[in-house]
Design brief:
By secondary structure, the chain is α/β, with parallel strands linked by helices. The chain is built from eight helices and ten strands. The protein is 38% helix and 17% strand. Keywords: ATP-binding, Hydrolase, Nucleotide-binding.
Length: 259
């Protein structure tokens, strides 16, 4: 039987603003990536989302992003590897404190948005992010784009890595994600997203926008929590995976360590 993790980006509201339906989405995922206050989220939202995930038995990860609330962390910024290290340590440590305060254990770290894509392509940035995770807690799993520099950097440093694919995004022939700014960057049809998730899990393949077959290592599939169809799409993806006899469960972190 095939096995896959379903991860979802959550905790993205802040102040008086609410984004997504965290309460409904958390039970559909096996891992959640909680915003840490830079691109989205705030202390109260972090605490509430951590508590919801612990109550549901869903594995928790930190979702550090660039300091760009207006752009939701999806705009590239010129940052140095040292800055990438510092902002990762800061955000991972903040969420880990909330998880510990609520009596839980954090499972993983998955960079957000532009930081994720930058670390996927730049070895120096990838090494800085991976080193930040290792220094905070070497038992944490590092989630990254399948075949990316971030996965390579994590493995080089001895971290357990989890290769990620996206149900609702299109791909380029080199295995990178099509930019969101592209008119066909997102799969808006929930059935298409579900079919893509099943195929990536079973075959380890996805068809690029130009029609090429791209091979991927897939251990976790992301379902986004901020779109209009997020809830309906997430339910359909989960149902399609189960119908294909694919077990859905979170990956296991390494031996305890760090904070």
């Amino acid at each position: 039987m095939y096995t896959i993790d379903l991860n979802c980006d959550l905790g993205e509201g802040f102040g008086a603003y609410r984004i997504g339906n965290d309460e409904a989405l958390i039970p559909l995922a096996t891992s959640v990536n909680i915003a840490c206050g830079f691109h989205a989220g705030d202390p109260s939202t972090m605490r509430k989302t951590v508590r919801l995930a612990l109550e549901a038995g869903t594995a928790i990860g930190a979702h550090p992003g660039l300091p760009d609330r207006a752009g939701f962390g999806r705009r590239r910024m010129e940052i140095t590897p040292q800055e990438a290290y510092d902002l990762t340590v800061y955000q991972v440590g903040a969420l880990q404190a909330f998880v510990h305060a609520e009596g839980g254990t954090m499972q993983h770290v998955k960079p957000h948005g532009a930081l994720y894509n930058m670390a996927a392509q730049s070895a120096p940035l990838a090494e800085a992010v991976a080193e930040a995770v290792r220094r905070v807690d070497p038992s944490l799993l590092l989630f990254g784009l399948s075949g990316s520099e971030l996965i390579r950097a994590g493995r080089k440093l001895g971290l357990a890595t989890v290769s990620e694919a996206f149900a609702d995004r299109t791909y380029q022939a080199d295995g990178t994600l099509t930019p969101r700014s592209h008119p066909h960057g997102l799969l808006t049809d929930p059935q298409q997203a579900a079919d893509q998730a099943v195929r990536m899990t079973i075959e380890g393949k996805v068809r690029s926008l130009d029609g090429q077959e791209v091979s991927l290592e897939v251990q976790t599939v992301c379902i986004h929590g901020d779109g209009e169809e997020a809830l309906a799409s997430s339910r359909l993806i989960r149902e399609a995976l189960l119908a294909a006899r694919i077990a859905i469960r979170a990956p296991q972190r390494q031996q305890e360590g760090g904070l």
